[in-house]
Design brief:
The protein is α/β, with parallel strands linked by helices and 308 residues long. Helices cover 52% and strands 14% of the residues. It starts with a helix and ends with a helix.
Length: 308
């Protein structure tokens, strides 16, 4: 029951100021967000690649209020891509982007977001990698899917994310499970009303499996975004039943969560991609990680009351 409370707190400017100023916050945040600049995360990228892992990189930041902030977001991703090019790691790391960071919620936001993200997709393609459009709250999804469709006309490898807890997602999955598509399925981390989303964990888990089955039996490339051991096992079984081999789909997990599992799956021959966020505007991202898993919240609270 704490999840919705934490998600509401993620929108609170007052709590943002309190938590950001707390002395223990930064060390805890570092568990999930390894740096504020691209220079700080380069060693993470190099280390992960050396271990046989792949990455999807997210420059954190949402809810922008001015078009010039969208330009800053675009330039941050272009800087990241330039670093990947220099390192020769373009094929080991892709980008994940939230269109809200590219101005989607502003006046004329659909066109603004499309114009801002296109150069990022172009630059990514030039170094042999791609971009996945993250899903946000349900009111933004029609715009996100339209931008995804438009980008795929020139860059068919562009991926997108679907959220299992939404009632609409099974139908979205059927539409997206076509040849050449790349689709990441997650449970969902935004506070959504009962009119559009399952609220019960068991129902969400069942919906996730239904959606995952659609993707595995389809012609696209499924990306399994989950830390749940049961989901991981079910994904492997569904892939086997659908005739998929390791490499015909991938697992994705967050940086700082179940790191040993990352290595285990990679050692078994699976493509294992670590979702790695960085940047200064980390508050909203951090709070959603706490909401997703009670253990993350307990870790944070223990840190708040201990010296180390």
């Amino acid at each position: 029951m704490l999840g919705p409370v934490i998600l509401a707190a993620s929108r609170s400017d007052k709590l943002r100021r309190v938590i950001s100023a707390a002395p223990v916050t930064k060390p805890v945040v570092n568990r999930f967000i390894p740096g504020e600049s691209v220079e700080q995360v380069v060693p993470i990228i190099v280390d992960a690649a050396a271990k046989g892992l792949e990455l999807t990189m997210d420059v954190v930041g949402e809810d922008i209020t001015r078009p010039e902030q969208a330009t800053i977001a675009r330039d941050a991703y272009l800087e990241l891509i330039e670093h990947l090019k220099t390192l020769g790691l373009g094929t080991r790391a892709e980008m994940s982007v939230k269109l809200s960071m590219f101005g989607q919620a502003l006046e004329g936001g659909h066109e603004l977001a499309l114009a801002g993200v296109r150069p990022v997709v172009e630059a990514a393609a030039a170094i042999g990698t791609t971009v996945t459009l993250d899903a946000e709250d349900h009111t933004t999804l029609d715009s996100m899917f339209a931008i995804h469709e438009e980008l795929r006309k020139d860059f068919p490898q562009t991926g997108c994310v679907i959220q299992a807890y939404l009632f609409r997602t099974e139908e979205d999955a059927r539409r997206l499970a076509a040849a050449g598509s790349r689709v990441r399925v997650v449970k969902g981390a935004y506070k959504e009303p009962a009119s559009v989303a399952y609220q019960d964990k068991a129902e969400i888990d069942k919906a996730y499996v239904r959606v995952l089955r659609v993707l595995m039996e389809g012609e696209g490339y499924p990306m399994v975004g989950s830390h749940d051991p049961r989901i991981v096992a079910i994904a492997q079984d569904l892939a086997r039943r659908a005739g998929r081999k390791p490499g015909d789909f991938e697992f994705q997990m967050l940086y700082g969560i179940r790191s040993e599992e990352h290595l285990r799956l990679a050692a078994e021959g699976h493509r294992m991609r670590v979702y790695t966020a960085y940047g200064t505007d980390w508050y909203g991202y951090f709070m959603r990680r706490l909401a997703e898993k009670p253990a993350n919240l307990l870790f944070f609270l223990r840190s708040m009351v201990t010296k180390n």
